[in-house]
Design a protein that fits this description.
By secondary structure, the protein is α+β, with helices and mostly antiparallel strands. Helix content is 33%, strand content 20%.
Length: 454
């Protein structure tokens, strides 16, 4: 862990004047948990963590840090996976966790205004209690914050039908590098009055300002939901089934799990797989919608995809039991050590070939393992590498992705981890505009240094 550096007493006092000393944490014991990212790969340092509660306090803190020219690192739930959430150069850590709470639920138009530190799970529950549904879902739902999911444009398991976080963001409020507040929270269905600034801040990974409030779109709730676990003897049949299943509107998630990782998962969970045997490939298919979806799913999986074995659950406990196998993938792999995490999109037609090429690369490498799983419905595969020296293997795999016309970051963002690969997916013109926007909003380059731009 690098030297946390020391902040001059004057700066500490100015920060304490904003919202009181209890919002200015300098005790290293209290800081340490926020200096390492979820994967354990990124370990940073910081002299101070600020925990503002209100937008005005975020503005006050950022104004002081701007005045003194102090670099800043924003943090939400610290579940990010690309090294973008911890202070890697002694920056002052600004945690948005306490900027939390559901501000407004507009049940008529299906919208919700929430503070950035509110967890994804809380937003999902509040939406359901209000007779609506917030569609974004991912394994870190209990800890990931709405601000973090907006800053990273998080994907998750429902992108196939409901889109990325960007599709849910109707408006947002942000605090700029110098403490000015930008409010763009109107939620009109049609409002063509200039640039859509919420879109600019969505996916900005903390490089343009602190997101403090978000207006989210909500979707109608489901009458019925069902989850099917499909076992396949071969990869080609499973990928063929993904294509068939994508044609059915009721299907909102198609996840792929492979035998080797599922073995880690059932070990980790201490459960047995709900199928009669460990199939080489397992798809988890979630269908949801109007009444009758359970029957439709059963017929779809039989006619359309012809698996070797099917288990269907429609009750909540049964669905959760099937999902638990997918949700536990990241943590089960992490029991093997700190993985190198690749989060790639591959064109649908290349998925089976890509998995084969990754397996060949692993054999050629001879030392590391590749644990493959992910959101097969939208071509987003997660390839977690473990072993002595996976860097070369990681580069080889990312070259395979670029050669296949895919993306080196499907949903986790660039962070500090993928900065060297940004140019492989974005043209010089795009990168120039990225730089111009960053220079306009953060001319001193103090916000999340190293994230997105290296
Ligand atoms: P952090 O990790 O705290 O921060 C992430 C980035 O956003 C950092 O650059 C940070 O500076 C910035 N940031 C955070 N809050 C703000 C704010 N209010 N204003 C400005 N910048 C901010 N991600 C997916 O997309 N899909 C998945 O399926 C998925 N599954 C996961 C499963 C597990 C078990 C885990 C641990 C993580 C998973 N993730 C997934 C990754 C992670 O949950 C997402 O990236 C999430 O959006 C991070 O939210 P956070 O609040 O934890 O943000
Ligand atoms: C997931 O979908 O579980 C995560 O995005 C992938 C990961 O943890 O590598
Ligand atoms: Zn994912």
């Amino acid at each position: 862990m690098g030297h946390p550096g020391v902040l001059p007493r004057r700066v500490i006092e100015d920060l304490e004047d904003v919202a009181g000393p209890h919002r200015v944490v300098t005790d290293p014991e209290l800081l340490v948990g926020s200096l390492v990212d979820w994967t354990g790969r990124w370990e940073g340092s910081s002299p101070v963590m600020l925990r503002p509660r209100l937008t005005s306090e975020v503005a006050g803190h950022l104004g002081v840090l701007s005045h003194h020219g102090v670099p800043v690192q924003f943090q939400g739930g610290n579940t990010g996976m690309v090294g973008g959430s911890v202070p890697m150069g002694g920056e002052v850590l600004v945690s948005l966790r306490d900027v939390a709470g559901i501000e407004e639920v507009d049940e008529r138009s299906g919208q919700m205004v929430v503070a950035a530190g509110t967890t994804l799970a809380e937003v999902q529950q509040t939406a359901l209690q209000s007779g609506w549904r917030y569609p974004v879902d991912l394994g870190a739902r209990d800890t990931a914050t709405i601000g973090g999911t907006v800053a990273t444009n998080a994907g998750g398991v429902h992108v196939l039908r409901d889109g990325m976080t960007r599709a849910q963001v109707l408006g947002l409020e942000a605090v700029l590098a110098d403490g000015r507040i930008m409010e763009s929270l109107r939620g009109l269905d049609k409002d063509n009055t200039g640039y859509h600034l919420p879109s600019l801040f969505t996916g900005s990974e903390g490089t343009l300002g602190a997101i403090t409030r978000v207006r989210l779109r909500l979707l109608p709730p489901h009458d019925e939901e069902a989850v099917a676990m499909l076992g396949f003897a071969g990869l080609d049949a499973a990928i063929e089934a993904v294509g068939q299943l994508r044609r059915h509107f009721d299907v909102q998630a198609i996840e792929i799990m492979l035998e080797d990782v599922l073995e880690l998962v059932v070990d980790h969970l201490g459960v047995s797989l709900p199928l009669s045997r460990a199939w080489p490939v397992v798809l988890l298919v979630e269908a949801a919608g109007t009444a009758g979806v359970v029957d439709r799913l059963a017929s779809v999986v039989h006619d359309g995809s012809d698996p070797d074995e099917v288990v269907v659950a429609s009750d909540r406990a049964g669905r959760q039991r099937l999902w638990a196998h997918r949700d536990a993938h990241s943590v089960a792999i992490s029991t093997l050590g700190v993985p190198t995490k690749l989060d790639v999109t591959v064109p649908q037609g290349r998925v089976a070939a890509f998995i084969g090429e990754v397996r060949e690369a692993v054999v050629a490498d001879g030392a590391s393992q590749a644990w493959i799983f992910g959101h097969a419905g939208d071509g987003n595969l997660h390839v977690n590498l473990t072993g002595p020296e996976p860097a070369g293997l990681a580069d080889h795999i990312l070259h395979l992705v670029v050669d296949a016309g895919g993306s080196v970051s499907a949903e986790h963002g660039i962070g500090r981890d993928k900065v060297d690969w940004l140019g492989a997916c974005r043209g010089p013109g795009e990168l120039q505009v990225f730089r111009m926007v960053k220079d306009a909003l953060d001319p001193a380059g103090r916000l999340n240094p190293g994230v997105l731009f290296g």
